[in-house]
Each structure stands twice: as C-alpha cells, then as structure tokens.
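Q: What would this chain look like folded?
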Amino acid sequence: MLETVKTFTSLNLLPNQNLSPNGLNPEKNVNLLTAEEYGITSLGFLPEKCLNELPPGWHHFQPLLDKLSSDDDDDFRALVHTMPPYSPSLYSLTGLSQGQKRFLYSILTMCMQKYIWGTGTSAPVDIIPQELGAPLFEISNEFGLLPALTYAGVILYNWSTKDESQPVTLDNLQVCQRLTKVYSFEWFCLVHVAIEAEGGKVLIPILNIKKNMQDNDLKIIKQTLRDVISVMKSTKDVLNRMYEKCTPEDFWTFRFYFEGTNDEKFFPNGLRIKGFEDKPIVVRGASGGQSPLMQIFDALFSIEHVGHGKEFLIEMRDYMLSSHRKFLEDFSMGQTLKDFVENSGDEELQEIFIEGVDTFTAYRQYHYTIAHDYIFKMIKRNQIDVVRERKDTETELYKKNETGTGGTDAPRFLKQTILATKETRTLQIKEDHEGSLKNQGKGSAKIKLDISINRTIIENLLLSLIVAIMGSFLMRMLM
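A: My prediction, written as structure tokens:
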C-alpha cells in the first residue's frame, strides 16, 4: 500500500475529451452486463443495506467516529494523532466484505473532511496523516473512486433504515455518520438518499429497455417510460421536502464540508498525505452531479449537453463507483431510445417520450429553484456572515460567488442542463408516404410548448413595438 501511495500522481482532473456530449456513442454497440455487475440493486445505485459498524481489526477508528460530529476542531485532530502508526497489516483490507469496505470508504472520507475543515471556524489544513490518507487511497483505488469525499461516500453508503421491515422512504431513514450535531445535515443527506431510492425503482427496467428495443416490444417500452415519468415526479416531491428540516440558513452552517481541494486559496499545493507532500491530491468537492441517477436519465432520453455542462458532467463520472460509471458508458452505446422512438411510427410512444422529457425538464427547473433559494439568494442577501457570525475575512471559508461545491459555475451549469433537456423534446419523425423528415414534437405536450414559445415571441414583439411608439411620442413632445 505504501508503495502505491508513493507512486500516485496528482489527481488534478481534466474532462474526458474522448467522449461525445453526455458520452453518447450511437455508432458502437455493446452487450450490456447484468444489474449485479453494474452495482445496481432493487434500490438502484444504493446498496441493499449499509453496514454501520467497524470491521474486525479496525476498532482503533471508534474514538474518531464517536467525535465525528464534535464542535471542537482540536479535539478531533488530537484524536487522529493518537491513532496507532500506519502499517499495511494494521490497516489491512484483506478478508473484508464489500459492505465492510463501503463503510470504511464512507467513514474515511468523512474523517478526512473533519480533519481538514474542523468545524469551519478556522482555515483548513492541507496535510493529512498517513493513518487517514494511506488506507483511504487504497480503498478508493479498489472501488475506482477518488480519495475524496464523494456523493457515494456521504450519500450512497451512509444510510440505514429505522425499521428494516418498512420501505426505504425519507421518513424511515437515518444516516450512519454525521459531520455535525445539527440535524439539518442529516436531513440534507437523507433527502438525497430518498431520491436515489425512488429513482432506483426504474433502473432495472431502464437497463432492459435496449433489449426491448431490439425485440420491438412497444408495450414494455411505453410502460417503462410511464414508470420513469412517475418516478421523476415523485423524486421532485421528495426534493421539495428539503425545506422541512434543512433551511437555507442551516445549509450554510455545514456546506464547507462538501468542498474539494481544488481551491488554491486554501490548497495552493493541493491536499497532501504526510510523508508524501510531493504528491498532491487536487479534487472537486462532493456534488449532486456525481449521482449516476440523473445521468442515466440523460442517457435514456438522449440529452446531449454542450460546453461547460458537458465537460462538468463527464468529469463527474470520475467521482463515481467504477461499476456505475461503466453502466453509464455502456448504456450510451448503440441505438438511442430517441432514435427508436422517431422511427417507430407510433404516435402514442412519441407522445410518452416527449412527456418524459418535459417531466425531466420540470425536475431540473425545480432543482434550479432549490439552488436559487439555498445558494444564489443567500449570497445575494449577504447572509453568510450573519449565519456564522464571522467577520474575519482572512479565515472566511465560504465562497462569495455562485460556485457549487463541485466547483462549477452553478447558475450557468443548471441553466445549460435545463436548455439541453428542453431541446431534446423535438423529434425528427419520418413520414411514411414520403420518407421526408418532420422537425416537430407530437401530441398535446408539443402543442403546449409551441404555444408557450409563440406567446413569448409575441410578447417580445409587442414590448418592442410599445417601446418604439413611446419613444416616437416622447420625441414629438420634445420637439
């Protein structure tokens, strides 16, 4: 393990330029693997169950877990310094189950963030002890993940049910570990877990839809799309519950824990493991963009992002479990569902497809509303210092611009994803009697959008006309 740490290079990531927008590659076919091989369960990208206890031989981490939500920076860091010195045998992963390794990955990433950021009242540290860094790097390599706090570590692998006999729903969830005593942190995480569980209901049908297309099974494809539409609506309902127990003001008391190590202000040399300071770790922070769920919806509807949005989403795949990343890549190969729908000649299927795109657009628009309330509005109202009661700008840990924890220009990125999703609703449909193309959508959903677009055009024209008339009138009055 130490040899691996000695030789790893800087993790300053660049977007994968070998992929087309959203990774779509219709020219190449691939045989899809099984759900199990892609790490897909009945709960989607969530494991069926998360363990919540240290495996044998790792009990020296228990004092850290007991203090993980502590409000004392020095107390937690001091505990880390009392841990047994790192050795491959004492920090061994040999013989551990996948569930035990997932738990270790989750707690190691959170312990690292706690050590780096403390409680957010002082500048972060940029060197972590080997006792945290070395095992984290080893277990990250095994999962194909980065040695950083990722969406997988804090969301996918950090939950349990209060009552195992009941479904995995928001009200039946609790986190395994917290980084703060404030319950809003737990609620913030659980809302995302519940979204994953809800979306997970349709992952296996989505996996099978390529086979359904080959079999020309329109009935199953229609039902799958209807189920996807229903799930996207329910995930939006779950997202709406964020306000219940995590206010925008609450969010800013722990947002810094989701930051990365790519901010040169605090990490001019990246994050380093003690003893290997010449090998910096430069990574983005945990972000919802690291969830495979929204990206599989992108792939299902053939949504092609461009520019900044494309680059960010493709880069986010580097922060996903390798099996989840492979699912996204494999699913994006071969004939797309959109192409199948366009050539199906089935108007009902085309209408359902467009309804699906519109529903996904609505979800993204609502997500933008959440981001506006929790990030953009808070910054513009200048409430950050009020929340933390901190005036010392030298130790200020919060971004004053609208950059997301993943390091992206959040307003620009979210608007681009909404626009790209909207544009996908237009279908190129062949006319049977001529074979020519009709650049239009089908059904009432299309008509509704066209009316909306025409109304906007008319309103803009009328506004321009009114301004011109008023300008002419004022000129005459002044002459």
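The two ends are 85 Å apart (CA to CA).
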